[in-house]
Write a structure and sequence with these properties.
Blueprint (H helix, E strand, L loop, with lengths): L26 H27 L4 H32 L11 H23 L7 H17 L1
Length: about 150
């Protein structure tokens, strides 16, 4: 047995974890998910605050945010795609993102938090657009349809 192999004769250690957990994802896919969570929960707000403090007008603020997202996620997405192709070439079939009760609850909670943040921003009089809450709602609806 390969000393680097995971439990139950798997080639990689991450294969011994449940596929709906971060530990059960290949490393580059896991990195993409973690950076995505960091961006949407922390870095996006931080970038927005910095641009707001610098008095950057709205059209440029959006363009700078998109450039930041592209600079961060472009290489991460490419790395995850290359890793997936390599694993498929080795004969390792990666499951699609599973739709479990836990994942649906997580998506619903994150979407609800995004809607609450949007409502608070509107109530305080800050100009905002509900792009993230709308995307979260669409993603939740899509996952509910996949669950059936």
């Amino acid at each position: 047995m390969n000393p680097e192999a995971g439990k139950h004769g798997n080639k990689y250690e991450w294969q011994s974890w449940p596929s709906d957990s971060l530990e059960g994802m290949p490393p580059k896919r896991r990195r993409l998910v973690v950076w995505g969570l960091w961006w949407f929960l922390f870095l996006g707000v931080l970038l927005g605050s910095v641009l707001d403090a610098a008095n950057v007008p709205q059209p440029w603020r959006t363009l700078l945010a998109i450039a930041g997202i592209a600079a961060l996620f472009g290489p991460l997405i490419r790395g995850a795609m290359v890793e997936t192709r390599k694993l498929r070439a080795e004969g390792i079939v990666l499951p699609s993102y599973p739709v479990t009760r836990k994942s649906l609850i997580s998506i619903a909670v994150i979407t609800a938090i995004l809607w609450v943040v949007f409502a608070v921003l509107v109530a305080t009089g800050r100009p905002t657009f509900p792009l993230l809450p709308i995307v979260g709602t669409i993603w939740l609806a899509y996952q509910l349809l996949r669950r059936r």
